[in-house]
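PKD domain-containing protein
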Amino acid sequence: MSLKHKITNSYRLIILVIFGMVTLASCTPEDSFGNNGLTDNNVDASFTITPVEGESNRYVLEANTTNVIASKWNIGEGIYQGKSTEEIFLPDAGNYTITHIAIGRGGSTLSSSQELVVAESDPNAGNLVVGGKFETEEDIAQWTILNISASGANWTFGSGTATITASDWNQQGVFQAIDVQGGKNYAVDMSVQGEGSVDTWFEVYVSTTAPVQGSDYSADGTKIGLNTWNGCGNAPFSGKLSQLSCAGEGNIVSFDTDTTVYLVIKCGGGNVGAITIDNVEFRGTN
């Protein structure tokens, strides 16, 4: 075969490959849902809220499914993927904004919201922490700063959160007293987030032993917490402390008799990269 013939065949092969690539690209779906002809703009995001008969503080959310292929919900704790029918439990009295985000064909979305008033807290699972959302001056006033180190650690309050910063192995806590019933199980939890810390402990205690200003606190041992030596709190994190925890014996506690306990949240370390908490809860589970 001559050199000229080989070159000609090579050119033909190249042209065929390029033609195939152009054809394939022309058949690729558009990245944008806006122009692909599939987007459905008639999504119905409406929904109903119905109390569950015979059960306090439980409600059924039922979305209209017209042109809806998926549903997301927000009951005040962030958006989550759900189903067209959801049963929710709102143990605390208060005003709630319930939002349904309907997803239609082609990725179109539409949302609608309703206000729900919960008149009374659930008698068994209502939150016994007062001011756990840190939203008002009255909320913040329910907490007492536990000064352990002379300086170098500081809890600050604002924008509906409480944040601890600390360095050089200093630590500080916050606490409040809570009355509990004997023989009843309680769960302690909170939302927690941070960008990651170094040589840090973040510990939650529940004990009948009262904190003393100027003294460290470890009564009855850590229940849940973060500990960078154990492998949590090093990298950025966000979520429920009970799910992120790598320290302590667990977030369920009980006491033999009716008594007053102290919920203590303590944090310190070599370089605490600002740990923020919100929605602090202490609830009965039985």
